[in-house]
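Researcher: Here's a chain I'd like modeled. Treat it as a single chain, no partners, no ligands.
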Amino acid sequence: MVGQLRVHLGAAPGVGKTYKMLEEGHRRRERGTDVVIGYVETHGREQTEAMIGDLEVLPRRAHRYRDTTFSEMDVDAVLARGAEVVLVDELAHTNVPGSRNAKRWQDIEELLDAGMTVLTTVNVQHLESINDIVRQITGVPQRETVPDEVVRRAGTIELVDMAPEAIRRRMAHGNIYGAEKIDAALGNYFRVGNLTALRELALLWLADKVDDELESYRAAHDISDTWEARERVVVALTGGPEGETLIRRAARLASRSRGADLLAVHVARNDGLSGGSHAHLAAQRTLAEDLGGTYHQVVGNDVPQALLDFARGVNATELVLGVSRRGRLQSLFSPGVGVTTTNGAGPIDVHLVTHAEVHRGRALPKAESALSRNRRVAGLLVAALGLAGLTLLLSQLRGQVSLGSDILLYLAAVVIVALVGGLWPALFAAVAGSVLLNFYFAPPIHTVTIATRENVLALLVFLAVAVAVSATVDRAARRTREAASARAEAETLSTLAGSVLRGAQPLPALLDQVRETFRFTGATLLHRAPGSGPSPDLQHDPDAWQVVASVGEAVTTPGQGDAEVLVDEEISLVLSGHPLAAQDRRVVQAFAAQAVVAMRQQQLREQAAAAGPLAEVDRMRTALLSAVSHDLRTPLASAKAAVGGLRAPGVEFSADDRTELLASVEESLDRLTRLVDNLLDMSRLQAGALAMRPQPTSIAETVAMALDELGPEGRDIEVRLPEEFLEVTGDPVLIERVLVNLLRNALRHSPEGSPPMIVVSAHAGEVETRVIDRGPGIPAELWDDVFLPFQRFGDRDNGTGVGLGLALSRGLTEAMGGTLTPDTTPGGGLTMIMTLVEVDQDDQVNP
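Model: Modeled as a single isolated chain. Structure tokens:
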């Protein structure tokens, strides 16, 4: 028997999910359940540690990795204990390499398979599906994630939530992080906007989970009736011009119920011959999505039934339809979609909305003949010559062929004429054939009189069958042509969508597609200039229009083109080369509607591109203020405290104490100087004003100067230099700065007893200086992030700098024509590789 999983889902770190899990553990133990703690991480929080109380805590398993001992949950010990309920914290945790499973959720699955009930915790930012959204919002990547399906399989998911201001108060009181991290956390990850967004993500994710459970329950119990657990408004679209009115009406209905969903649906016939306009549907889809809704398309011949099936499938509570556009005479013979849908809606509220197109008919284009004029002329010739020849032949066989056989032969001739020329030539052949049969073959012959009633009936049946066959053949030909046209339109629109999606510049690609498809010489999208009022010569006024995009032969006004497709009152697609055929207008309208969508997307991209530098400036400003308020203040505070102690009246210091205090002042000021230098150099580098004096520089001498700059810290660094004398092209001061920054970073992350190493080598005209450490390393996907200003990987020490060392080092290296790239140290760690151009020694001799 598989055990039950209960997940405490935290909206953000610090909301108290571990505390809630421990509370639940105590409640279950008080009810007599055997409860143990498999793994709980308190993060040093006193309230959480106190909540453990007298719950049994199972021992952890120690793992040795990279000369460090880590503790993980002992799965074997938990299984051997065999408790009914096990508390396991941090579902998304990654186990130490060499553990039984790579992830803790895999450990928990083993416990569930053993029949145990597991209580666990996870934060919303660790869910795999929204990991990228969290990174976009907070700017912090989450390296530990858990598949959504693991959490969704839980029998119970409890959201642990807290108002953003309450979380910040907990942070300020030291209930979440230590005092040294509070300022950085409040100014970065724990901003009110970030916490609000995380809270909304958690609520939305959990709402989807609840919806899934509701749908599963309804399906398992075969429940088709609507349950009004959540308002959902469905609006039915026909592809007619009234669709925008219906969508806006439905959006107003949805807005009255906070959180209601808006769904727009179009029912397409199986044969693809519906009269809906592609242009109208494209514009209406955009409108529905702009109003916060979604667009759907379903297929079905029975439109009311398909519409009701869709509404019941999404558990809709309200259905919005337009009053029929059919005329009053048509309504007498059929009740229409609105009435039929209302009669079968059951508990779903149906709104029939009036609009400007009521009783104006379907407004479909006038049907053209299914066959060309040449085919119709050929049909008339076949009718005339065929009937004449058939009459002559049967006259020679009079007495040998009965009247019934004559009728069948004439009927075959009518079918042949229908196949060749369509309806009207076949009708002519049917009438002419009945006259010829009466005059030449129905007794008494050579008269229009018919002797027997049977012959009258036979001729009438012949005429009726001939007309019916003619109409059927013509209708089949018409349907074939319409289906071929619909297929061509669909293929064209499919190609249109593909070209727009693949193109780097969708708007020019789309205009070029419409120009090529319909053989125009040019296509121009014009936008009416702001402030251009009604003018009698608006179509030819170049000041009234702005060219948005153009391919081929360009125009500046609608009047200069050969065809114009209006998208709305302000936007027009103008085509040059030849007039637009009536049968092509619907597809071109769809192109025009899509062009407007592409235009708006292009405008949004341009606005986003313009806002990007401003956002970057704002981010840099915020980060700089944070650095000034914290990192620059720390050495100032240390120096001030030491100087204040030396100046304190009535306090006598020994010589050693005075030396130590002065050394502390000097160290703090040196650290402050380095921070300010880095800030100034970074600003000069970004402004392109950094002074640089490139010259041949000995890499060995520069390494020695960098080690001297590090002082006692640099004595343990292992240095491997080649035997030959190597010189590089660069500024020796800047090269030393880069090496010092890289070495300080390596020292900060190197474990005890494993100092960094410098290895210098030359090949292919370049000199590589590798700074190697054995620290925790950085995942390859984060290598680019470590070179961003004001970034400290892992945020492990807020007192070591403002996060400019690597960013400045790469900038200085590239300014000297070199590169600075990270690599993985074999066996674990990070290697930074500075590559500079080698000076050719042969060129240095006799310059």
